[in-house]
Amino acid sequence: LADAHTRHTTMLALFGSSLALPDAVPIMGLPSQVYGVPAIYGGIEDYGSKFVAWKRQFAKLYKSAESETKAFAAFAANEDKIRKHNAQLGHTYTLGHNMFSDLTADEFFATKLGFAKNHTTRSTYARTTHVVNPNEAVASSVDWVSAGAVTPVKNQNQCGGCWAFSATGAMEGAYFKSQGTLLSFSEEDLIQCNSGTDSGCNGGLMDNAFAWVESNGIASESAYPYTSGLGVTG
Questions:
Q1: Member of which family (predicted)?
Q2: DSSP helix/strand/coil, 219
Q3: Phi, psi of 47 (to 5 degrees)
Q4: CATH number, span 113-126+144-233
Q5: Closest of 221, 226, 28 to residue 113, by C-alpha
Q6: pTM as predicted
Q7: 186-233, pLDDT tens digit by residue?
Q8: Which residues, other chains included, contact 214 with Cβ-Cβ below 8 Å and sequence gap of 6+?
Q9: Model pLDDT for residues 44-83, shown as the tens digit of each residue
Q10: 84 neighbors 94 (Cβ within 8 angstroms)
Q11: What is the CATH T-level fold of the domain 49-110, as seen in this structure?
């Protein structure tokens, strides 16, 4: 596959200096199990109308009545969580529905989180801490999106390839810092071709992805678009 797709020669630009990797941050918020629809918030009609509107908003289709019933139960459970949280005082944020509202926590973790810490870790990257010169004036904050260093939000869909998206995001920013140009790199390239140390949609590790790109380069998003999230291998 390495010869079948155009690869950017980014190894020197990306790996000319050490990369410090952040610790993984767990995603929280969805209920741990599906439960029945109570009548406390106006009965099943209230949930049903919201579910229909939500399906229309996110163009949701289900393969069977059974799968839609299961999705509705998860949606109702998440609706309960949203209403309970938003009714409480003292929070600095509110909750709302998104495209994952028909998933339980277990389903979300199984299909969206592919970080595999037990994969062989490449430990040659030095973990360094940047020490600020006390005599140097630094900005109180930096917005890398406004600076043009961040590609638009991507969607991994039904594939545990978060490790690949994490890796491309880091490399896109590093390439921008090095070359002054923002390029979108191919997650599909990593998921399909980096099979020696990572496991595609079944999980992987960013360190391994960096090492693979050092040796092989990486295709652009336009040259090798992402399809694994829809169940189609590239």
A1: Belongs to the peptidase C1 family.
A2: strand
A3: -65, -40
A4: 3.90.70.10
A5: 28
A6: 0.60
A7: 999 999 998 888 888 888 889 999 999 999 999 999 999 999 987 777
A8: 11, 14, 15
A9: 558 888 999 999 998 898 989 999 999 999 999 999 999 9
A10: no
A11: Helix Hairpins (1.10.287)
